[in-house]
Amino acid sequence: MEEKLYFYYTNDLHSNFEQWPRVTGFLKEKKALRKRRGESSWIIDIGDHVDRSHPITEASMGKSNIQLLNDAKYDFVTIGNNEGITLSHKDLYHLYDEADFQVVCANLNSTDNIQPSWLNEKIKIESVNGIKIGLIGLTAPFNAFYNLLDWHISSEFDALDKHLAELKKSVDIIIVMSHLGISVDQEIARRYDDIDVIIGGHTHHLLRNGEYLNNTVITAAGKHCSFIGEVILTWDHDQKRLVKKEAFTTDITNATKDVETEQQLNALQKEADDLLGETVVHMEQPLEVSWFTETPLMQELTNTIKQWTNADAAMLNSGLLLDGLPAGDVTYGDIHRICPHPINPVVVDLKGGELIEVIRASLSKDFMELKLKGFGFRGELLGRMMFSGLTVETAFHKNGGEYVKQVLLDNGKQVDPDHTYYIATADTFTFGRLLPEVAKSDTKHYYVPELLRDLLATTLRRKFSS
Q1: Which CATH number is 256's domain given?
Q2: How confident is the model over 31-85, as pLDDT tens digits?
Q3: Which CATH number is 293's domain given?
Q4: Which of 238, 271, 304 is the last residue of a domain?
Q5: Which helix (H) or strand (E) holds 246?
Q6: Which of 19, 247, 396, 422 has the smallest CB count inside 10 Å?
Q7: 440 with 373, same domain?
Q8: What is the distance between the alpha carbons of residues 380 and 200, in angstroms, rounded to a whole number?
């Protein structure tokens, strides 16, 4: 006799709630179908469901996301870095207190040795006909952030070494819920013969029909839940082994929306508007924002980050502010609307020569007009870099290209190419290759859990309050 097992999964929603009613509609239909047929099925989320760029998530510190997962009847979730490092220790510790599903993450540890009651390293489940399945969750080790928040992410390979041998003895099938990214998933598949399925995420990769590597099928469904993933495992009870592993994804961008979920989201939006409606500051004059020219608001925000971090200088890209502010009462909702990014301040050390190169790169047309997606940035384009503690003198070539003539410190002296300076900026630039000198800096001090919009609120109170 053969038995089919069905796993439906989502990953990297990033609070894209416009899509969520389609997700729940699709999952309800599939769950009902499997129930009618007497088949085993489960629903899984692979993390980064939470994203504080959305006001519903911001207002509830992610608790509304958990409510939506409950309503959609999820069975298991693991955590992503957006759950893990954009919330305070207390907010993450209590994020899943009301969850109706099980949270699985084998490599998350609280450094005070008091683990949340909801946290499972691994879980074991059974199908309707007694097939035993083990699930392990793993998340990406952003320990430069986690450690400052009193968490630690251990090596995914150490966690697998710890749990796989025991699971192999006690279950028939092993599934890894991985918020680690495609390259790590592939390495896990190469190293471990006993893993049957890796359901992945984090790097927003879309595997339409799965990837077969060693004894493992690897799958992932892109980002923002435009696709939902499905894994179908066929177990032969006579042979007592898996005889087929299938993985594919379904495009649900035009699927029917679930009406109850739409109503719930409308109610949650109203709650968020009320919670974020508190006045932060009253202003007599409006404040304009420009992505390519200097503005008082962007300059003062850059000054604030320099002072707040006690850095030698600071630099922030103008694209961080999406819109200006009108005269009158400014609420936290307004501040969130114009600065939605889950981005933290950071201080890096740069030699003077490196700093000058960073400034040159940041004032290039390609940099300013880059439509960045990811690294915490939720804006349209990067925009012009603003500076505090530095005077950057530029001129223009005959072809219209801007170049840096000289960079002066506040005391009027030129930047010393061999001296080390401590520069405050957005943590976005410590990832990837946007500004390589910043990303490669040997010293990076992140400031958590404060986000840049918290410093924007401080700036408005201190500099623009009437």
Answers
A1: 3.60.21.10
A2: 999 999 999 999 999 999 999 999 999 999 999 999 999 999 999 999 999 999 9
A3: 3.90.780.10
A4: 271
A5: strand 241-251
A6: 396
A7: yes
A8: 27
